[in-house]
Amino acid sequence: MNLAEVKAAARKAAYARRAEAHGRGLDGAAQARLLELLAPQRGRAISGFVPIRTEINPLPVMAEMAAHGPVCVPVIEARAQPLLFRRWRPGCRMAPGPFGAAVPVEGEEIAPDVLIVPLVAFDRTGGRLGYGGGFYDRTLERLRALRPTLAIGFAYAAQEADGLPLEPTDQPLDAIVTDAFTLTF
């Protein structure tokens, strides 16, 4: 198998594990861990995400952080380009974006200092397997070239995998927060 086929197989297995964990009441424990990790970051620009399909839900954490500083969500402008980030507030008007994730209808563009990153699978070294578009890898590479940028993977513990098929362009995570544990690197 080539690398693309290996990644596709790893994603398929991870989607199944994530689907099994989703809806089992695990989000609250993960949200509490994420709030604890983010407490020192209050007031800094933080990017979250609007969950799609069976992704874990960061919205309560984003709402809490929005009371202390700017919170934004990713917006896909074009394929093979870094993400842009638009300001998000609880209750802001949203519209469907590419790939089904809702984005704010209006709001200023923000360059986040901290990113809460969705993922399909992760490993214990900070490796992340995403959806395959490379959006977060390009974005993190761009932001990290400008200044220190913290990337926190947010997932169910069941999404952990051994031996992820990673490439040199894959940007590592600085921490991973799940319903069962927090890892920092």
Automatic annotation (TrEMBL):
Keywords: ATP-binding, Magnesium, Metal-binding, Nucleotide-binding. InterPro entries: FTHF_cligase (IPR002698), FTHF_cligase-like_sf (IPR024185), NagB/RpiA_transferase-like (IPR037171). Its EC number is 6.3.3.2. Pfam families: 5-FTHF_cyc-lig. Belongs to the 5-formyltetrahydrofolate cyclo-ligase family. The keyword Hydrolase does not apply. PANTHER family: 5-FORMYLTETRAHYDROFOLATE CYCLO-LIGASE, ATPASE INHIBITOR/5-FORMYLTETRAHYDROFOLATE CYCLO-LIGASE. This is 5-formyltetrahydrofolate cyclo-ligase. It catalyses: (6S)-5-formyl-5,6,7,8-tetrahydrofolate + ATP = (6R)-5,10-methenyltetrahydrofolate + ADP + phosphate. It is an enzyme of class 6 (ligase). Its cofactor is Mg(2+). It comes from Sinisalibacter aestuarii.
